[in-house]
Amino acid sequence: MASAHQKELQKLFASFNKGPDDEGLTEYINDSDLIMRSPARILLAQMGLDKSVTAPFRLLDNACGVGPIAAELQEQVDAQVLAGSKVLCADFNANLVDMLKRRIVMNGWSNIETAALDAQDSGLPDASFSHSSINFGMHLIPNPQAVLRDTMRLLQPGGTFGFTVWHKDNEGCLPDLKACFEALPFEAPFPDPFPMAPHGQLQWIEEGGIEKELRDFGFQKIEINTMTHIVHVDSAEHYLKCFDMMKHWIVNTYWNEESKEKAKGILDEHIVKHLKDKHNNQGWDLTWKMIVVTCQKPM
Q: Cα–Cα distance between 44 and 77 in angstroms, integer?
């Protein structure tokens, strides 16, 4: 069952709709890729799906969002290898899948299929993929064990599963947003500690817990790497645009109606002004801490 945290997140994901404007879609994709694209590249390299791959493969990219994995495949994998491969990008949220479809057409990508599917129970055929990836989803999806069960079923013997999650000690955009909320002249709660795993299963945001989960489900050749990911934001306005969803999620989940009413019409302006003062009206770097995981189904 989804928690209150997850229900608010799902409402936000379901509300994404960039309409018919290609320029607006491109802007949204660029902001998303700023955070998601580099980890996607690192994950694919750890899975062996980069410039080194020479044989065709069959990849299911679950929780695909607007396609950072697909974008990296186009850039990293040899065109002939990709032409002989099968790539299915799937997400629970049909609106995100529709946005990815538009991105595929806009960029002229080849051999990328899309579908609206639930990673917990995809309904796809047994042993139909050589690889499966999830870029920042295993700490969000309500039942990650169901994902492991379905992934083990979908993978061919010896197949590779790879995923990224935020580390329990990750900070990223949070210190700046917390400082903005604390400077408001009314009650503006900010969760402390921040729920880095909204589904409540904290083992999914620390290395030992992840390894145990994978071993319990029979995965082998487990490789877990923890690393930092630096994201540069150009300005206070850029920060607000990139992390507007995080702002809304915290407000909708933790604030009472009185605080929401007081924030109407002033919150965004307050955030921009506070961050301009804090960072001397310049851009700055955000440091994210992530875990990159790969493992294999037994032969």
A: 10
Q: Quote the number of domains for the chain.
A: 1
For residue 213, give the 3-state DSSP assignment.
Answer: helix
- DSSP labels, 83-109: HTSEEEEEES-HHHHHHHHHHHHHHT-
Q: Which two tokens stand for residue 15?
A: 């509300």
Tracing tokens 């410039």 back to the chain, one arrives at 51
Measure the CA–CA gap between 168 and 64, rounded to whole angstroms.
22
Domain containing 63 equals 4-296
pLDDT digits (tens, 9 = 90+) for 81-112: 999 999 999 999 999 999 999 999 999 998 89
Residue appearing with tokens 């540069």: 232
d(CA 121, CA 75): 30
Cα–Cα distances in angstroms (integers) from residue 62 to residues 20, 65, 173, 184, 221, in the given order: 25, 8, 25, 39, 21
| Whole-prediction pTM | 0.93
d(CA 228, CA 50): 20
Q: How many residues belong to the chain?
A: 299
Phi, psi (degrees; rounded to nearest 5) at 143: -125, 85
3-state secondary structure of 8: helix
Q: Can you give the CATH number for the domain in which 112 is found?
A: 3.40.50.150
HSE toward the beta carbon, residue 185, CA cutoff 13 A: 3
Per the CB < 8 A criterion, the answer to whether 98 and 128 are in contact is no
Structure tokens at 34: 């700023």
